[in-house]
Amino acid sequence: MKFLVTGGAGFVGSYLVESLLDRGSEVRVLDRVIGELETLKGHPKLEIVTGDSQDREMVNSAMKGVDVVYHLAWSFPSRPADAFKIDVGGYINVLEAASASHVKHFLFLSSSVVYGEPACRPIDESHPHLTEKSRDPLHALTKATVHKLSSLYYTLYKLPYTIFIFWWGYGNKHIPGRTLRELIDSALKGEAIKAPEKASGSVAYLGDIAKAFEIATLNEKAYGQEFNLSSFQIKWRDLIELIVKLADSPSKVEIVPDERWDGHGFLTGLWEISTKKAEEILGYRSNPEKAREVFTQALKLDIAVRKKL
Ligand SMILES: NC(=O)c1ccc[n+]([C@@H]2O[C@H](COP(=O)([O-])OP(=O)(O)OC[C@H]3O[C@@H](n4cnc5c(N)ncnc54)[C@H](O)[C@@H]3O)[C@@H](O)[C@H]2O)c1
User: What residue's CA is closest to ligand 1, atom 6?
Assistant: First the structure.
């Protein structure tokens, strides 16, 4: 079976590419850069096409002979005109090419940013897309738009699609994110750190995300569906205390009631994501114990990297 992974050189994409290659699949990547794929370059079953999803001809040619598409190319522009031209425009190019060449399944990785702000707990897939209430309303709107576009292509051209939604992902060796980097740096400097009392989120281990893609691919139960994914729930105050402990830092952690929180915008809300639908329909199961272990290990490595800077 042949896969096209757009954005396959990125953080999540490269993990999925490696899992596909490990299972013996043929993979073509379309990405602007080689990025995280440097070590996989030259793999006999991997073809890397360096290009942009805005280039229609290039996308059409990358789609040749492809059975399944994983679409992960996303560039997060900060201006609406760029975000719609690049990310939404590129998405349409991929949908067009996939339906024209009768791709069997199109899977997209979205973000819980689409829900705007948590209006209930836990958040399931029926939560409204409150894009204008989001901390990042442009990102929320572009994601909500491509959800609708996927559904439109399913209705008009019968292109089977599946969308996965998650809050914050991490791998075996790295937890990305500017806020986390800043928290680690504060701990390494021994600065006092504020933590919201209740704010929390459902983090997702890339191993669990890869498993979800595997069980959903060409699974008719997943067609036309959106599924939340997560591995375990963590409170920011617990994460900050863990950073302080692992960094062996003298930093004092000051707990602030959420209603008085004026720190990092990312450290707000109760992002408790329900994975019940994925469990019931796809048989998705995370392994929270292992996921926590990997999280702590990755955090230790990130702290060590920042210590050397
Ligand atoms: N990392 C997370 O914690 C997280 C959380 C929720 C959702 N997501 C979603 O998962 C998807 C992938 O995220 P990521 O963290 O791997 O991002 P990333 O930035 O690491 O990877 C994105 C890749 O897409 C490529 N790309 C961007 N625009 C392109 C274009 N026009 N044409 C070709 N390639 C292009 C980039 O070069 C990059 O390699 C995104 O849609 C993101 O919103 C990620």
Answer: 111
